[in-house]
Amino acid sequence: MTADPTPPPAEPPQNPPNSTTVLICPLLIEEAEADAVGTPSRGGPVGMVSWGTGTLVGVFTGLLYGGAKEANANVSKDAEVMLKMGSTTDKREQYRLMRDAMEKRFIRVAKGSLVGGARLGMFTATFFGIQNLLIENRGVHDVFNIAGAGSATAAAFGLILPGSPMWRARNVLVGSALGAGICFPLGWVQLKLAEKANLEIETSKSPSDLAREQGNQSRVGAAIDRLEGSLRK
Known about the structure:
The protein has 233 residues and is mainly α. It contains 7 helices and no strands.
């Protein structure tokens, strides 16, 4: 009789990877890669303007423009007030005329600032909203996104202007053509300036900064290898 062969030793059970480690590791890898590059991993394309930043700049620009426009329009009215003040010798009457003129001027300037800020803020919010939507759908940021956003925004504002349907249709056609014609060269210049600025930033880095980035990348690679090794155990 032959002896029964001894069964091979059983392999030790492999521990399944911890779910917490599986969830946290990708996040750690993303953060480490972002730290190594020096910019967040969710950064936008070159030349892309944030919707909130663009809208805020448009609101403040509209406030300044509307207030300055109303202030310049009050020059002729100030001349009329000065004539009325010169026609009377009563100090109380002159004081009343001056006070009324200053109050009316303050109200007109404040109203012009609010209206200008609201109009330009709505325009910039619509423009950058459409532009970001085109960037997300097309997956690239180029001059056609800027031209398309300008054309659509001008057409939308031409549509809401008062008038007959034929007049509004004319405003839509003219606004879309003007928006695309104006935004296309401006967008091309903006993208070229943004690319040039990024290139100058990259070339202006000192050797110490480049060495530090390389060291960060090597440390990130080692951390990723350790995490992958822990997952295989």
